[in-house]
Amino acid sequence: xxxxxxxxxxxxxxxxxxxxxxxxxxxxxxxxxxxxxxxxxxxxxxxxxxxxxxxxxxxxxxxxxxxxxxxxxxxxxxxxxxxxxxxxxxxxxxxxxxxxxxxxxxxxxxxxxxxxxxxxxxxxxxxxxxxxxxxxxxxxxxxxxxxxxxxxxxxxxxxxxxxxxxxxxxxxxxxxxxxxxxxxxxxxxxxxxxxxxxxxxxxxxxxxxxxxxxxxxxxxxxxxxxxxxxxxxxxxxxxxxxxxxxxxxxxxxxxxxxxxxxxxxxxxxxxxxxxxxxxxxxxxxxxxxxxxxxxxxxxxxxxxxxxxxxxxxxxxxxxxxxxxxxxxxxxxxxxxxxxxxxxxxxxxxxxxxxxxxxxxxxxxxxxxxxxxxxxxxxxxx
Length: 381
Ligand SMILES: Cc1ncc(COP(=O)(O)O)c(C=O)c1O
What we know:
The chain is of the alpha/beta class. 41% of the residues lie in helices and 14% in strands. It has 12 helices and 12 strands. Helix 2 packs parallel to helix 8 (236-271), helix 3 (69-81) runs parallel beside helix 4 (97-105) and helix 8 (236-271) packs across helix 12. Residues 68-70, 73, 96, 98, 143, 147, 172, 174-175, 195, 197, 206 line the site of pyridoxal-5'-phosphate (PLP). Pyridoxal-5'-phosphate (PLP) is lined by residues 68-70, 73, 96, 98, 143, 147, 172, 174-175, 195, 197, 206.
C-alpha cells in the first residue's frame, strides 16, 4: 500500500468537498447573470465566501478569491505597492518562491528589496526586524508557517512593530490554515494568503484576505468580478470546494491538531535512537504535521527515492524546488551547512495518517540508516 506523507505539497480532496464541487459543476449559470440560474450560483459563492471568512475570523467582504496561494501572494504584493511611490519591501529569507519572485520583480519598478534574516530556528526576531527596517520600508512579508520546516513565526508581535513603523504587513498563511488556529485580526496582518489544496480542497483556488483600511488596485482587469480586483468568471466548483474545505477544517481543527502532535512525537521519539538523524528546528514552535530531517551520509533525493521504492511518499525540500540539487534556501538561511541541507527530506502528515503509518516510516528509515552504516563499514569510513 502506498503511504502518502507529503501533505504540505498537497492534500487529497475530501470526499464531501468533491461531492459539493460535482453538484456545482452541473449548474449552468454564470454568477454575474441576474436570472435564477445565475443567482443560484452566486448564492453558492456567497456561502463559500462566508465559510472561508469564518476560518480566519473576518467578514466575507474581506475575502478575494484567486487561482491559488501563488496568485494571492502576487496580488498581495501588487495591491500593497501599486498606488505607492517606490520604497523598500522587506521579505523574510525563508518565504515561498511565490513571494520571493514577485518581490524581486518589484525592483524593476524602482523598489528596493531587503531580505530579513532568520535565526538558527528559522524565525524572524523583533531585533532583526528593528535592525533591517528602514524609514521607507512600506511593505513587509513574513509567512505564518514555513512549508519546509513547519516553523511558526510570531507574526502578531512582529505586526506591532511593522504597524508602528507605518508599513503594511502581508503574511502567507497557506501552510498554517487548517493546521493551527488562525485569526486575521489577531495576526495583525493587513493581507493574508490562503490556498484550498492544502486543506483538503481542490487545487487552483485560493484567497487573499484584506484589511478594510486598504485601498485595492485591480490585478486582472475585465468584467469586474471580485469587486473589480480580480476579473474573470469565477471558478465556481473550486470556490464551492474551498468553502466547504474551510468549514470542515475549522470544525475538525482541535482534534486533528492534537492527533498530529501525538504522531509527530511518536516519530521523533522513534528517531531519537539514531544519532545520525538531525531534525531541523526541533525546539521551535512548528506545525504539528511537519518534520524536516536529514540523515548524515545520504542525499535527500536518494532518501526520497529509497522511500518511494517501498511505497512511502515524502518530499525533499519544497515540492517546487525539488528536482534541483540545490540545497533548500530555507535551511541555508537558518545557517545549516549546505552538505547537511542537501540531505533534507520533509515528512508531512495528514488527517488520514495513523500510528501504524509512523511505525512503517520508522522501520523504513531504520533500514536506510543500517544500510548506510554497513556501506560505511565496507568502505572503511
Ligand atoms: C507557503 C506556501 N505559499 C504559497 C504556496 C503556493 O500555493 P498554490 O500551490 O495554491 O499556488 C505554497 C504551495 O506549496 C506554499 O507552501
